[in-house]
Amino acid sequence: MSVLDKKIKEIFPNESVYKDDKVRAIFSGWNIPSFIKDWLINRYTDYETGEIDREGIIKFLENYMPSKSLKGELVNNPYHSFKVLARIITEPDVKQGIIRFSIPDIGIKPNEGIVSKALLSKEIGKVLSIGEHWGVCELVYIKEEDKPGYIELTDFKPFKPYEIDLDYYIQARKEFTTFEWIDLLVRSMEFNPDNLSLDEKLTLLCRLTVFVEPNLNLIELAPKGTGKSYVFSNLSKYGWVMSGGYVSRAKLFYDLNKKMEGLVSRYDFIVLDEVQTVKFSDENEIRGILKSYLENGTFNVGNFRGVAEAGFVILGNIPLTGDKKPKSHIYFEELPEVFHESALIDRFHGFIEGWKLPRFNESLKVKGYALNVEYFSDILHNLRTVGGLAAFVEDILNAPATADTRDKKAIVKLTTALVKLLFPDAHINTPKLEKVEKFCLDIAKHLRRIIREQLNFMDPEYSRDIPQFEIKSYNP
Q: How far apart are CA 464 and CA 452, in angstroms?
């Protein structure tokens, strides 16, 4: 066991899990997210010996994970309850005065599922009113004479295996060197840091900035196979990934017919994956709403004015030359027409050069101790509200008075996000400021500089220069 493995296991005994291919093979054939896999591994591992009860995991999967045939079993056995661990999506039906639910993974559609009135009257009912939830569901098929049948959610126990002690996590940072902490984060993203350069690790960690900083907006273009979709789809239940297809104003922001807020009000970040294949219902309408929302987190639809904290991430592919550099110096040529406006692009805070990451291969699969994905996901979510870290960044950064407001905002937000990731205890254990400059400010400036350069290609009125931020002394 390596020094880092021992340290992770000692400091995070209940929140860490051992990961390797042999363990992952248990889940072959099961379409379940990483945080469920990690929880099961942790639950069925003997802490003293490290032995994994494979049969116990398999039995749990067979008993509680829903199969594709469950919907048919429900219909064939009216009024017989079935318990499964599943992801449900709930939304109110204003016309009917009920809460509908769907379970996409087994084909239960919103018009087929209803949350029982009795369940809604309980404390959990507040949680189930709208959104996406993981938990143990009790399902019953109801079929009354001369009435359409439906599946009822009669009980729900949220999947919450950890009590999140953010203060403990923050204090634990001082037990690791900066390089050890970087490796811990990379492992927790399910990558093997041993086969990545420092620059590659830091580029990878830039993807996590939207997990920890509200209203942060990024663009990443990369060749296929660099793991960009995987990171956003598997590491957090607080994000929503849309892979191509049709995107409407109603789904993203507000549905006038249902009088219901969209995805930006329910998630920490929204990802438009495979953006080249995304189709917008009304490009002019989406562009107008996006410009307002990306600027200040507000949106107006009809007479409704909304406020949200979800960041936007644009993911797309980019053609490369033989030496793995973009074929064109104008990166946004590949984006849909809606993004071919400089005023909209200017509202994205940073650009990640995904082509600088290697194509995911066997050597990049994590092996060793890492934070459990469910725990890691909640930690990142909770770091969004640590105001002391934002104040720390504001105190140590000095920008010229002539700095462009959007550039300043972008660099401050990106620096804050990187501080939350790399120095989460900065507001109580002041790190060496040269480290903050190297690992946070310099990277933030680089991410913003690329946006500036691309804006200049799109519209020469935009300067390629960014503010010359400096680190000043810090006196808490």
A: 5
Name residue 158's beta-bridge partners: 135
The class level of CATH for 197-357 reads alpha beta
Cα 331 from Cα 343, distance rounded (Å): 16
265 Cβ contact list (under 8 Å, min separation 6): 306, 308, 310
Model-wide pTM > 0.70: yes
Q: Terminus-to-terminus CA distance in the chain, angstroms?
A: 39
320 strand-pairing partners: 326
- What is the Cα–Cα distance from 30 to 130, expressed in whole angstroms? 27
Measured CA to CA, the distance from residue 97 to residue 475 in angstroms comes to 56
Structure tokens at 19: 């990961």
pLDDT digits (tens, 9 = 90+) for 390-426: 999 999 999 888 899 999 999 999 999 999 999 999 9
Q: Which two tokens stand for residue 93?
A: 């039906």
User: Which residues on adjacent β-strands are paired with residue 178?
Assistant: none
Which one has a higher pLDDT value, 331 or 40?
331
Tokens standing for 211? 């997990």
pLDDT of residue 475: 59
Helix/strand/coil for 93: strand
Sequence spans of domains, the chain:
70-158, 197-357, 386-471
- Token output for 441: 């400010």
> 92: which strand partners?
99
Instruction: For 269-303, give one letter per residue: b (16+ CB within 10 A) or e.
Output: bbbbbbbeebebeeeeebbebbeebbbebebebee
DSSP notation for 24-39: HGGGTT----HHHHHH
Q: Measure Cα distances from 257 to 111, 282, 323, 349, 446 in Å.
A: 16, 17, 51, 33, 43
> Using CA atoms, how far apart are residues 296 and 285, in angstroms rounded to an integer?
17
Please, are residues 315 and 229 in contact by the beta-carbon 8 Å criterion? yes
Contacts of 125 (CB under 8 A, 6+ apart): 115, 119
Of the candidates 162, 195, 163, 193, the one whose C-alpha atom is nearest the C-alpha of residue 178 is 193
pLDDT digits (tens, 9 = 90+) for 370-386: 998 888 999 999 999 99
- CATH 2.60.120 is held by the domain 70-158: no
Residue 348 token pair: 């994205």
Continuous segment of H or E residues that includes residue 40 = helix 34-43
**CA atoms of 351 and 165, how far apart (whole Å):** 32
